[in-house]
Amino acid sequence: MYLQAGAGLRISETLAFTADCRRSDFLRVRRQVSSKAHREDCETRFVPLKHRAEGEYRDIPLPDFLAQEIERTCATGAR
Question: Distance between CA 75 and CA 26 in Å, rounded?
Fold first, then answer.
């Protein structure tokens, strides 16, 4: 919820978020979960961002409260 409200991530981007997306003062979003990820025949669970080619990304400013929440979550191992 914090990633969606604080950074404007789509649901599929939020589900693909990992700690390596975080930079010092911004988030680098590079992938999203495929809309077909739930299917058994899906070979690729993660796909490029909507309206972006493979390898492209978008940088999103990181508000202080969101940086603190990410840090807290990573420290506790919570999801």
Answer: 19
Parse the chain into domains and list their residue ranges: 2-74
pLDDT one-digit tens code per residue, 9-43:
999 999 999 888 999 899 999 999 998 888 888 88
C-alpha 70/C-alpha 37 separation (Å) is 25
pLDDT digits (tens, 9 = 90+) for 39-66: 888 888 899 998 899 999 999 999 999 9
Length of the chain: 79
To the nearest 10°, the Cα dihedral for 14, 16, 21, 22? Answer: 40
Between CA 79 and CA 76 the distance in angstroms is 9
Q: pTM value?
A: 0.80
Query: Rounded CA gap, 3 and 18, in Å?
Result: 11
